[in-house]
Hints:
By secondary structure, chain A is mostly beta strands. Chain A contains no helices and 11 strands.
Amino acid sequence: DAEITQSPRHKITETGRQVTLACHQTWNHNNMFWYRQDLGHGLRLIHYSYGVQDTNKGEVSDGYSVSRSNTEDLPLTLESAASSQTSVYFCASSAAGNNEQFFGPGTRLTVL
Amino acid sequence: AQSVTQLDSQVPVFEEAPVELRCNYSSSVSVYLFWYVQYPNQGLQLLLKYLSGSTLVESINGFEAEFNKSQTSFHLRKPSVHISDTAEYFCAVSDDRDDKIIFGKGTRLHILP
């Protein structure tokens, strides 16, 4: 069955370190999205991609970057982790022209 | 710009009682509307969606939502809740200009025994 996976599921890091969160989907979807979920804020869009080599900034992109070198993967990098980036991160994907998104299980990131 | 408002951050309800989770949206174009559910320690799953056609949409586990264009609402209802419905529910809006979805802040449904 097609699926979307995230790794690691839990990560503790220190302020200033670079961190990369992986997202891999086997749906063959063109669209991929990264969100962060925080209490009182719901889901906020960080970055998104509509295809290979395409990346776009979302609502809360500062301090984050993504790259899309193939259809299956959209890794999210925190260049220099900050305590304000402690959150739960969700990756999602959807087919082009279809607004229904499929979500991964999430990564809980703690920045100390 | 699109936006979604979920007026209630938490809704407590007794088991087997009816529930309504409210959602209002703003958009200047035709919309697609979604309800997603997030069970504890899990990702989001699509519960139901409105794309076009009948304004009343249903899920497989007894939830329903009605698209009301004049009131710009898409409230979620269930006539009798079960303990297994304990979760956070997110309303979301999109349109045909691009494939992004805008999410509300979520409503946490607490089922009381």
